[in-house]
Amino acid sequence: MPSARPLTALRTIAVIAALPLLITACGYGSKSTDDGKQTAVAAGAKKLSAGEVKIGYFPNLTHATALVGTQEGLLQKELGGTTIKTSTFNAGPSEIEALNAGSIDIGWIGPSPAINGYTKSNGKNLRIIGGSASGGVKLVVNPDKIKSLDDVKGKKIATPQLGNTQDVAFLNWIAEKGWKVDAQSGKGDVSVVRTDNKITPDAYKSGSIDGAWVPEPTASKLVAEGGKVLLDEASLWPDKKFVITNIIVSQKFLKEHPDVVEAVLRGSVKTNEWINANPEKAKASANAALKELSGKALPADVIDPAWKSVTFLDDPLASTLNTEAEHAVKAGLLKKPDLKGIYDLTLLNKVLKAEGKDEVDDAGLGAE
After folding, report:
1. What confidence tens digit (pLDDT) does each residue in 298-319 have?
2. Which of 34, 70, 171, 230 is the most buried (most CB within 10 A)?
3. Average pLDDT over every residue of 320-326
4. pLDDT computed for residue 335 by the predictor
């Protein structure tokens, strides 16, 4: 395993180490929106064991499976007469809280809040039931100040928040370079400046930071402002894949309505297949969904490169989640968590087999 690989490895744990710090790991802010939106159901369509399924996700490109799946009706098609009620979130903790409260049943979410939610409940509140996306994280720098990776030393680099997914990844990368930084203060051979993603582009334009280790679309927003991608995190992982978005479900809902969960997973698999077969149409669909949710679509110079950097897949890439946890422990960011049982890929593998696709592995972290 390459020594650089730990950099993403810390992603998950960051959040475990500091629950309130996760807020901007995948989103922009801390608000959640129960939009109460219900998808249209075909007349005469048969309901499954639940009349409604409440689904949560972020208005982010890394959650495009959910964005496109709802926008194109691909999820609803598999659910028949069971309606979908959607809620959107800008932070992992708020989505986990909604899952715990029963406000949502199934959610698209990053690995850090999934692990955090699982460990904080002693393995009783959720299961990861599928994958959704990989990649979409980059180190973008001011090319006038930083021309090589070694030039990062002595510079001011932003991450979304202390202890969040990208912050931990960057701290680990710094350690791999042999440089020293105090994780709490961010001071050392590199100045790690914790900056909310929504204001990072302005911080870059003002010159208060020299670069940032951030997820999409923030990375592409920086490039649109003249920044240069110095490192794509995917390059540090075998096969250039690491988990950025999972699908989770409350254990209660999974037990009571496995047919509904299976239908959602089937819709997710078919959505990913459609996205990969129709990338331009899917990109436009995702942007249309973002515009509907936020009131503003992403411009072409942002969405085009951002879209290309995210890979949509069904495999939750469990081994990368496990590696992240191991590296976070090694970094001293948290005590070794017990992740046994965090995955239940039974229904996903049933769907994949029926679709003629390869089954996926839980890396030994499956529920018994």
Report:
1. 999 999 999 999 999 999 999 9
2. 171
3. 82
4. 76
What is the four-CA torsion angle of 331, 129, 59, 114, rounded to 10 degrees? -30
At 289, list the tokens.
């969904």
| Cα dihedral value 91, 133, 252, 100, nearest 10 | -10
Amino acid at 254: L
Q: How far is CA 61 from CA 27, 45, 123, 150, in A?
A: 10, 31, 29, 30
Closest to 3 measured CA to CA, from 271, 197, 236: 236
Average pLDDT over residues 82-93: 89
Q: What confidence score (pLDDT) does residue 21 get?
A: 34
Which pairing describes strands 243-250 and 228-232: parallel, antiparallel, or unpaired? unpaired
Predicted confidence (pLDDT) per residue in 153-201, tens digit: 999 999 987 766 778 788 889 988 999 988 889 999 999 999 988 899 9
Residue appearing with tokens 């064991």: 49
Amino acid at 90: N
Within 8 A by CB and 6+ apart from 115, the residues are: 12, 13, 15, 16, 321, 325, 337, 339, 342
CA 53 from chain centre, in angstroms, equals 21
Residue 366 DSSP label = B
Q: Is 335 exposed, middle or buried (0-12, 13-18, 19+ CB in 10 A)?
A: exposed
- The mean pLDDT value for 44-53 works out to 89
The confidence band for 40, taking pLDDT boundaries of 50, 70 and 90, is low
Residue 346, pLDDT score: 98
Helix (H, G, I), strand (E, B) or coil at 85: strand
Structural contact between residues 351 and 265, judged by C-beta atoms closer than 8 angstroms: yes
Q: At what angle do helices 64-71 and 279-294 cross, to 10 degrees?
A: 90
Please say if the pLDDT value at position 248 is more than 70.
yes
User: If DSSP codes are grouped into helix, strand and coil, which group holds residue 12?
Assistant: helix
CA neighbours closer than 13 Å in the CB half-sphere of residue 177: 19
The answer to whether residues 129 and 154 touch, using CB atoms and an 8 Å cutoff, is no
Backbone phi and psi for residue 125, each to the nearest 5 degrees, phi listed first: -105, -25
